[in-house]
Write a structure and sequence with these properties.
The structure is a homodimer of 234-residue chains. Helix content of chain A is 24%, strand content 22%. The first copy, chain A, is built from 5 helices and 9 strands; from the N terminus they run βββαββββααααββ. In chain A, strands 1, 2, 3, 4, 5, 6 and 7 form a 7-stranded mixed β-sheet that branches. A two-stranded antiparallel ribbon of chain A has the order 8-9. In chain A, a hairpin with a 2-residue loop joins strand 1 (2-6) and strand 2. The A-B interface holds A 33, 35-39, 62-63, 75, 77-82, 89, 91, 93, 139, 143, 226-228, 230, 233 and B 33, 35-39, 62-63, 75, 77-82, 89, 91, 93, 139, 143, 226-228, 230, 233. Chain B binds a DNA duplex (27 and 27 nucleotides) through residues 167-169, 184-187, 189-191, 193-194, 207, 209-215, 227, 230, 232.
Chain lengths: 234, 234
Amino acid sequence: MVLTVRDHELCALLVKRGEAPFKGYWALPGGFVRPDEGLAEAASRELAEETGLRAQTAPGQVLAGQNPFGAHLEQLATYGHPQRDPRMRVVSVAYLVLAPDLPSPRAGGDASSARWAPVSELFGEDRNDGELLAFDHGQILADGVERARSKIEYSSLATAFCPPEFTVGELRRVYEAVWGVVLDPRNFHRKVTGTPGFLLPSGGTTTRQGGRPAQLFKAGGATVLNPPMLRPEA
Amino acid sequence: MVLTVRDHELCALLVKRGEAPFKGYWALPGGFVRPDEGLAEAASRELAEETGLRAQTAPGQVLAGQNPFGAHLEQLATYGHPQRDPRMRVVSVAYLVLAPDLPSPRAGGDASSARWAPVSELFGEDRNDGELLAFDHGQILADGVERARSKIEYSSLATAFCPPEFTVGELRRVYEAVWGVVLDPRNFHRKVTGTPGFLLPSGGTTTRQGGRPAQLFKAGGATVLNPPMLRPEA
DNA sequence: GGAATAGTGTCTCTAAGACATTATTTG
DNA sequence: CAAATAATGTCTTAGAGACACTATTCC
């Protein structure tokens, strides 16, 4: 499953199923592992086929990786309930991709059958239509969103949602979108710039948000944040 | 894979392979999923068959669960490198079990082919013999140990290593064994007794450690610790 | 008594949260 | 000019770490 932040909202990539079962339902993109490829390799290949995005694990890393584009890919969980597919026993190894805002989804050339769905529309308070995803993909989506929400607390993974260069304000809006909260800009700025290895000044400035020009940063090498960025309580 | 704490050390359950490939090597216990059972169900069944321990996920919980015995079972990760088994393509869904100290391992009736191995002997500084596990089980073990080490930071999962009733000192020794550090008893006591929902006084006291009698506790309902129990840095 | 463990209290310092204030752009 | 965003600074308070000290058992 692919998550991104668009228009200040956390969004998941969905594709419309063209065949039974669950024909016409929205589902998470996926496919089958080839006999001679690894699991992460297969996830990366399917992702490229369906969205054109390149994300792959670093060699030797079993569970997670970061690619040159900044997109992040990691194994989420494996789902194997005997009746999760009405046709036959299917075991799915779900992978989670965190990507910067992408131009537009294109599902194997068929643009009408793919979309970015705000996760707040799929579950939570804003859910107005009770739309259900195919198979157990609602559960997989919920697990992936929770993984993303908790992982940006104690890692620098939120930068995977940002373009190669970004401002502190843009990074803050990522946190706000993923957590669905409002953060104090001043305390946030002090926190992220004060955490060694989180942000690396790239020298430039930008004014694309209006207002005073903001300093541009790249993701620093740090992967673990200590102390963590605490998610505000309910 | 099953982890426990014995003699102030974090230990993993290993079984000796009686057949090729890797005949005579130590390996993590495991087995095959039956056509009509779930993944966690299969892990729970194999565990009971090989050790007599009962651990199962609570119904509806996909990723983790807690059973009446206090043993905890959760999905760890899935390993599917094409050449991880020299015979054929095998995809393994690893489950992690955290259990209190068990009487003695018995592997399907054959006691000589199962043992509790301190993880410090399998990797890390203390590793004196360079013993290797079968297949990629060394990697799986490392991933499981890291999961346990990080998870007791922000959850009450350390109680899964304890008997149903335990003292603050026993819980502290669990943290010390899993992290391989020494903690201040006074600060630890203040921290765990001050975290609401972590510990529930059971009324009794015990003197099994010598010294002044200690109050006995049960695991409280809390699963998430906020603020977390911080692991001391290197 | 001495050794061991349990439990409470006190001090310091880091860092989070709640603000004020100044700086620099666009409209 | 006003409005928006960026960046820095100040105050308060919660909580972690480093201790001293008392309590209660077994030997």
